[in-house]
Amino acid sequence: MIKIHFADDVKKEVARHLIPEVYRQALSETRIEPVEEPDLQEVRLEEGAPLSFAAVVEIKPTIALGTYTGLSVQHAP
After folding, report:
1. Residue 48 vs residues 21, 28, 51: alpha-carbon distances, Å
2. Residue ranges of domains in the chain
3. Phi-psi category of 48—alpha, beta or left, where left has phi over 0 and alpha has psi -120 to 50?
4. Most buried residue among 12, 20, 27, 44 by CB atoms closer than 10 A?
5. What is the pLDDT of residue 15?
């Protein structure tokens, strides 16, 4: 009876605590540095199965500078 009434609430509470912890761990392991909060998708938390979710994030682009020293520039007088 309790399981029927509170199962959804318990799942939400578990997800609320686990997702941030697992997300931070994944960021640390992959060395991804997002620029904003994640868009969580495909969150699955079922009894007897591991928590799974997809976190879509935006990251800073990698910028590689080319040779810029020794360039000559012409300018109008």
Report:
1. 19, 26, 10
2. 2-56
3. left
4. 27
5. 85
Task: Give which of 54, 49, 2 is closest to 23, Cα–Cα.
Answer: 54
Three-state secondary structure readout of the chain:
CHHHHHHHHHHHHHHHHHHHHHHHHHHHHHCCCECCCCEEEEEECCCCCCCEEEEECCECCCCCCCCCCCCCCCCCC
How many angstroms separate the CA atoms of 63 and 77, rounded?
33
Task: Confirm if 53 and 43 have CB atoms less than 8 A apart.
Answer: yes
Per-residue pLDDT of the chain (77 residues; tens, 9 = 90+): 666 777 788 888 888 889 999 999 999 999 999 999 999 999 998 888 888 999 999 999 989 988 878 888 888 87
Residue 39 CA: distances (Å) to CA of 8, 34, 63, 72: 21, 11, 25, 46
